[in-house]
Each structure stands twice: as C-alpha cells, then as structure tokens.
Write a structure and sequence with these properties.
Layout: E1 11-15, H1 20-30, E2 34-39, H2 59-65, E3 69-72, H3 78-87, E4 93-96, H4 100-105, H5 110-116, E5 121-126, H6 141-147, H7 168-191, E6 197-201, H8 202-207, H9 213-218, E7 238-243, E8 246-251, H10 255-261, H11 274-279, H12 281-292, H13 297-307, E9 311-313, H14 318-322, H15 325-329, E10 333-335, E11 340-342, H16 348-357, H17 366-373, H18 378-386, H19 394-409
Helix pairs in contact: 1-7, 18-19
C-alpha cells in the first residue's frame, strides 16, 4: 500500500454488513486505510448474492469489500464479543450498522467504545436513528424509499409506485457516512479532539433526496406532488420524450436553456419565468413530444446540440452503459477473474488494484488480527477455533491449523 494515500496508517474495525456500511468502509480502504472486517461464522450474507464468484464470494461482496481483511468471529458468544473489544484499542475508527437495540445489547455504543479507546472515532449506521419509534425495524433500502416518499413519486403517472433497480439509499448513506468519518478524522488530527461519534440514519439520508419540497414551501404552497412519470412535477421542461428508435432526456428548465428550446417547439419570447412555464406545463410537454416523436435519436440529439439544449439518449442496457466513453476514458471498469466491477471514484488506481486482488477469504486474516495485532498465542487461537468462537472457509481451515500447530511445535507461540 502506498504511504502517499490519504488514510495510510489509519486502521478501521469494520463490523458492518450488507451494502450501506461496507461500501462506506470500502471507500476508506480505497483511501489507504487498513480495514479489519469482522464477519459472523457464516460470513456477511452478501457473499451469497449474485454474481457468484465461488461458494463464499459474489460480485456484490467483492464490490463492497475488496481491499479489506476478514476476521470471522461469533458475536453471539461472550468470548467473541471480548475479542472485538480487545481489537478496539488498536483501531482509529470503529463502525457498525447493527440495529440500535442489538448494538446496545452488545454494548457496541459510543460510551463503551470511547471508554476503551477515547481517540477512536465511533460510527454507526442505522435505518431510522438510535431513538426512533421504528428502532426495531430493519433498515432496508426499498422499505426506506417507500417510507420517505421516493417510491410513491417514481413511476408512470396514474400507475403504480416504482423502485429504482439500484440501492440508491444505501449508496447515498455510504457517501454521507464516508464524509462524516473523514470530517471526524480531520477534527481529531487538526484539533486533537477525542470521543468523536458519527451516527447516520438511512431514512434521514433518503429524505434529503427530495428536491421539490423546499421550492414549494418557499412559495407558501401546500406540498402535494403527484407521480409525474416521464416529466418532473414542476420544473419545465425536464424529462424524457419518446423518439422513433428510443427515448431522449431533455433538461431545459433553466431560463437560458428554455430560451434555446422554445423556438424549436413553437414558442416565442414568452414564458420567461419558472412559474409562467409551470402554468403551461402540459402544453409545453405535449409540444416537445410532438416535435421529437418522428425523429430518430441521432437527429433529435443533433438538433438539440445545435440549439445548445442539454440532452442525452436514454441508454437501454447495462452493457451499453458500460461501453460509453465516460466509463472507458476514466478507467472505471475493472475486469477481474470473475465479475466486472466498478473502481472507486476518489482513489481510483488503488481501488482498481484492490478489486483485481479480490476480496479476502472468510476468516482469511484471523491469524493476522488475533496473533499479530492482539498478540494471542497460536495455541489459544486453535482453542478459539475448536470452541467455535472463530471460524473460516473450509479451504483455508487446514492452512490456519497448520500455521498454528507448526508454531506450537517449534515453540513459537507468542
């Protein structure tokens, strides 16, 4: 790992699972942090999701966890919890995304973490917040989209609510979490602050996706927005129109862009304000659809480009998306031995190297974490293994036992 990376020398104890938590920590790993990922005996469940990359790995898992070390500990046991508590003094960041009440039962709360290690930054990600009335509900992306109105406002007008195929709340939550942790690390380094906590709610992150409420509230209007399908509910013109061989997206709601689009669809110099265009929204949309309906994608985009109106073809497949110049020119796609993955945005080169290196085997870093970091004797590690406190993939079990046994036979057990 390069010492020039932003977080070189920082160690993260990662107790997260699924997407929102692991993806945030993956970005910390991309920035150079050493990550110790604590997994249950069966592993993070996303190891079993598509696309399969072996019995204990998947495209989902590799995307969110490459560049991390895996330690397999049973947190249903007192001994397992004690091992995690022993690792906390060696960490700069301690993060989990357990339900708040589960975290309290395990004493995985900021007060306890900071009692053990005052300088550690504690971070938790939950579905609804530590003291929410929904505290026992699991924080699932699709449920939170529904709860915060995202699904109700998505889809065709007059139809059913829709949910985007990607986990956008998970992704947004990861970004906010990463920013929070980086801010806390900066505060610790620059001002010497300790006992810092970053606590993120997926529901609150999802609520920030709404870009219509602030405008209407500022106008003193009652916020009542119906599902608008292909067009924005009040920004005119912003949406998708059909052409002969597909669809194109047009964004001409800003005054200068509207002035460029207006002559194309039969308007003169009128409707110069947002509110004026909103009052004739349906007419504007119908004229735009009528103009472009008989054009090909190529012709429509050429005409819009000549006029200076922002527009783009609606790409019809993931394969086509992956072949766009945007992905190619920035080397965003990483072809591994298994799935094709997407490199991180900030430290792209190191991120790509981590993806090519693959994700750690389940329990693949047990010896590193327990012997090299904690200093446990290798005989004690064998005892933990035989008692079911720690575990690993069958493929590496024999090697782990051999390393511990050989060390014991030679007297090297410290």
């Amino acid at each position: 790992m390069s010492d020039n990376l932003t977080l070189s020398g920082i160690r993260v104890l990662d107790l997260t699972r699924s997407i929102a938590g692991p993806w945030a920590v993956r970005m910390l790993a991309d920035a150079g942090a050493e990550v110790i990922k604590v997994e249950p005996l069966a592993g993070d469940f996303i190891r079993q999701l598509p696309a399969h990359a072996g019995e204990f790995s998947s495209g989902f898992f590799r995307q969110a966890n490459s560049g991390k070390r895996s330690v397999c500990i049973d947190l249903h046991t007192a001994a397992g919890i004690d091992l995690v508590m022993q690792l906390i003094p060696h960490a700069d960041v301690v993060m989990h995304n357990m339900r708040p009440n589960a975290a309290r039962r395990l004493n995985m709360v900021p007060e306890r973490i900071h009692e053990i290690n005052p300088s550690a930054i504690f971070c938790s990600v939950s579905g609804y917040g530590d003291n929410s009335v929904f505290v026992e509900k699991p924080g699932q992306d699709v449920a939170i989209q529904a709860m915060t109105g995202i699904s109700e406002l998505t889809g065709v007008a007059g139809g059913e609510p829709a949910v985007p195929i990607w986990s956008m709340v998970d992704t947004l939550t990861s970004a906010y979490t990463y920013i929070g942790i980086m801010s806390a690390l900066h505060a610790r380094a620059s001002r010497g602050l300790d006992r810092l906590s970053v606590q993120v709610s997926m529901a609150q992150c999802s609520a920030t996706l709404h870009d219509v409420g602030p405008y209407l509230l500022a106008q003193g209007e009652k916020v009542s927005i119906e599902r608008s399908g292909q067009f924005h509910p009040f920004l005119v013109l912003r949406g998708v129109v059909a052409v002969q061989d597909g669809f194109i997206a047009i964004s001409a709601f800003r005054n200068r862009d509207w002035a460029r689009l207006a002559p194309l669809i039969g308007f003169g110099g009128e409707l110069l304000s947002f509110d004026e265009r909103r009052g004739r929204k349906r007419e504007i949309e119908e004229r735009a659809q009528s103009l472009f309906a008989h054009m090909t994608i190529e012709d429509a985009l050429a005409q819009l480009k000549d006029a200076g109106v922002p527009a783009h073809q609606a790409i019809e497949s993931l394969e086509s998306v992956s072949q766009t110049g945007l992905f190619q020119e920035h080397n965003m796609l990483v072809q591994t031995e298994g799935p094709t993955l997407v490199a991180g945005i900030i430290h792209r080169k190191h991120s790509a190297e981590a993806l090519l290196g693959g994700s750690d085997a389940l329990g693949g870093s047990n010896l590193y974490a327990l012997h090299e970091i904690l200093g446990l004797e290798k005989g004690a590690i064998l005892d933990l293994l035989s008692e079911g406190i720690i575990g690993c993939e069958p493929d590496i079990l024999e090697d782990l036992v051999a390393q511990c046994s050989d060390a014991m036979a030679s007297g090297d057990v410290a």
